[in-house]
Amino acid sequence: MAFSISEKEDTIIALATPQGVGAIAVIRLSGKDAIKLTNEVFKGKDLEKQDSHTIHYGTIKDEDRIIDEVLVSLFVAPKSFTKENVVEISTHGSSYIINQVIKLFIRKGARPAKPGEFTQRAFLNGQFDLAQAEAVADLIHSDSEASHQAALHQMRGGFSGEIKALRDQLIHFASMIELELDFVEEDVEFASRDDLRVLVEKLMRVVENLISSFDLGNVIKNGVPTVIAGKPNAGKSTLLNALLNEEKAIVTDIAGTTRDFIEDEINIGGVIFRFIDTAGLRETTDTIEAMGVSRTQEKMKSASLILYLFDLTDTDMVEINRDVNKLENLGVPFVKVANKVDKGEPLFMEKLMAKYPETIFISAGQKENLDELRDKILELVNLDKFKTGNTVVTNIRHYDSLVKTRESLLDVLGGLDQEITNDFLAMDIRRSLHFLGEITGEITTDDLLANIFSKFCIGK
User: Fold this and answer.
1) Which residues define the annotated binding site for K(+)?
2) Is the pTM of this model over 0.85?
C-alpha cells in the first residue's frame, strides 16, 4: 500500500466507528482541505475561523437538502493525530446517513481512506515512530488487561526511546570510524575502541533482554495455548465447561466421546488462555478415536501449558507415574489436576499428595477448587516481569529485527577482538544500525509500510 506524492496530499475520509446501525457514528477526515471541505457543507459557524479542539453544532446539507444534524470536532494542524487538519463529524448512526455524508464529501474532492492510512500519515508526519504506530493496532485489538497494558506501554514509547538513544550513540561511533578512513595515513583515532565496546555491550544487554521477553509477549498478545489432557472420562470436557461456565463440550459416560478438539478462550487474571479439550489419552482400536489420540499428542507438544487431568476414582499411582514421566519428557509446563475430589478415597489422596504435593484437587462436576486451579495456571505463566513495568516485545517483526541486531553486534565485538580494519568494522556497525532502524522506522521501505498498515482497520 505505497502512496504516491499526490495521494499523500489528498484529503481522506472514512467511517471511524464500527459498521452497522448505532446511536451515533463518527466520520473522520484528514488532510490540508479537511476543514475547508467540511465548511462547504456545514451550516452553523464558519469552521475556518474556529479554534482547534472545539466542537460545533449544525447541519450537513447537500445543497438545500439537510442530511443530518451533527457535531463537528476540529483539530487544526499540527495539533491532531495525523498532524494534518482533522475533522470528526458525529452523525446519527443510520447507514443511510453515513453513506450520504461520505458520498457528499467524495463529490467535494475527498477520497476514501485506505486501511491504516490515518495512522500511516501520523507516522510519516513524525507523530510517533513505527513501533508506536504498530502499537495503535495492538491497542485496538487488545482483549485482555495484559495485552492492553503491553500495547499502551509500547504506544507511549516502550523500548523505542532507549533504542533510539543507543542507536544515536552508535551512529556517532560509525561516523567517527568512517572519518578515520580519510586520515588513514596520519594513523589517528577519533573513536575510542574501548568506549565503543562499552556501548555495544550495553546495547547487547538491552537487546538480549528484549529478545528474552518475546515468549511472554507472545503469550500476552495471542493467548496461552493450554491443552487439557488425560484418559477418557477423566472429566476433561466437564472441566472445560466448568471453566467456561457454559456447556461447550458434550459430556457423557461413554469413553472416547471427544474425537476432535474443542477450543475456547478464557480470561484469567487479565490473561487470555486458549483452552483445548482433547481426545482421551489411551490405547484404542477405534480408528477415528486413534486419530484423535494421535493429534492430542501433537497438540501437547506445541502447547504452552498442559492440564493433566485424572479421575481419583479410576486411576492408580502406576498410571499417574507413567503419565507424569511422559509429560516431563515433553518439556512443556504442566499442572497435575486430580478430579472428583468429592468421591476420592482419602488414603489414596494422602499418598498422592505426599508424592506430588503440587497437585490441585478439584471436582469439575461440583465446580470445587476451580479458583485454586486458576491461580496455579496464572502462576505458571509468570507475569512477574510484565507486572513490574518492564518492556515486553509482542511483535514478531520487532523480534526478528532484534535477533538480527544481536548477530550484527556480536560481529562488531568480534571485530574489536580481532582488531579488524576500520572499513569492515564500520560495515558491521552500519548493519546493526540498519536492523535497529527497522524497528522504529528510521530504516523502512514502501513494501514494509504497506504490509504493516494494510492490517489496520479503515478509519484508523
Assistant:
1) 233, 252, 254, 257
2) no
Residues placed in the known binding site: 233-238, 252-258, 277-280
Which ranges of 50-116 does DSSP label H, i.e. alpha helix? 95-108
Provide mean pLDDT across the span 177-194.
69
- pLDDT grade, residue 249 (50/70/90)? very low
Give dist(CA 107, CA 13) in Å, integer: 12
Q: How far apart are the first and last CA of the chain?
A: 15
Binding-site positions for GTP read: 233-238, 252-258, 277-280
Which parts of 204-312 are beta strand (E)?
A: 224-229, 262-268, 271-277, 305-311
Checking if the pLDDT of 5 tops 50, the result is: no
DSSP category for residue 366: T
CB 264 within 8 A of CB 225: no
Query: What is the distance between the alpha carbons of residues 309 and 337, in angstroms, rounded to a whole number?
Result: 5
How distant is the alpha carbon of residue 21 from its chain centre? 29
Considering the chain, what is the average pLDDT of its residues?
83
Q: Give the H or E element holding residue 43.
A: strand 42-43
Residue 379 in this model has a pLDDT that exceeds 80: yes
Three-state SS at 359: coil
Shortest CA distance to 202 belongs to which of 175, 226, 166, 237?
166
Cell triple for residue 320? 499417574
CB atoms within 10 A of CB 447: 10
> Which positions make up the binding site for Mg(2+)?
237, 258
Task: Please say whether the beta carbons of 359 and 341 come within 8 A.
Answer: no
Reported as a single tens digit per residue, the pLDDT across 383-403 is 655 554 567 888 888 899 999
